[in-house]
Write a structure and sequence with these properties.
Elements: E1 7-11, H1 19-23, H2 26-41, E2 52-57, H3 72-89, E3 93-97, H4 131-143, E4 153-155, E5 157-158, E6 164-170, E7 176-182, E8 194-195
Parallel strand pairs: 1-2, 2-3
Antiparallel strand pairs: 4-6, 5-8, 6-7
Helix pairs in contact: 2-3, 3-4
Amino acid sequence: LHYAEGFVTHKYPNWDQQVNDLLASPKKDMQDMAEQIKKALSKYPEKKDVPIWITEFNTSDHVKPYDISVRLENGLWLAQYIPEFIRNFGSRGYMMLWDVMNGGSAITNPTGGDHGYLQAEQGPYQYQERADYWVIKMLTNYWSSPGDDKDHVMVDANSGNTMLAVYGNLKPDKTLSLLVVNKDPENAYNAAISINGYVPSRDAKVWKFDKDNY
């Protein structure tokens, strides 16, 4: 480890979890990972700020009651997991979702899965986008900025509702992007969101991703 230039791990953290437990897990799971990495590096203080790479990650295909990898729920998990990674590791962090095209049982089995965010199999829907694709697009194009290498700042944002995960990104142009993830499969919420470190304007552009458009 004296010669290490980075810390690399793979993460499939949700083996045998129920879907609602999965959707509630990203914050604690990433905090636990950060603590484990800090502990592993504690014997090598000169390496305490090395880059952290999750070079492969996704949900496991053993989420109960069925694999959700091509479903909206996987996107709701991913929409929390990436911001929680950023919150814990900032500019040290790099991550790569498995996979662009993987192939699986999703096109032949109603409860099947496929960890590719584009469909690999040939046919009329080859290369169709899965939920993960649309979440990544929302994060890169709207919550963040495509191709931007300037510093962004995550501001504290909270709704006080445990079913809502809230992430605020203060962009280099001083605009704020607010990501709100509703983990409740049945209910919508009106929520008052507190934001520290930013005073929002009265107007906002809104993008919505839910079961009605997926």
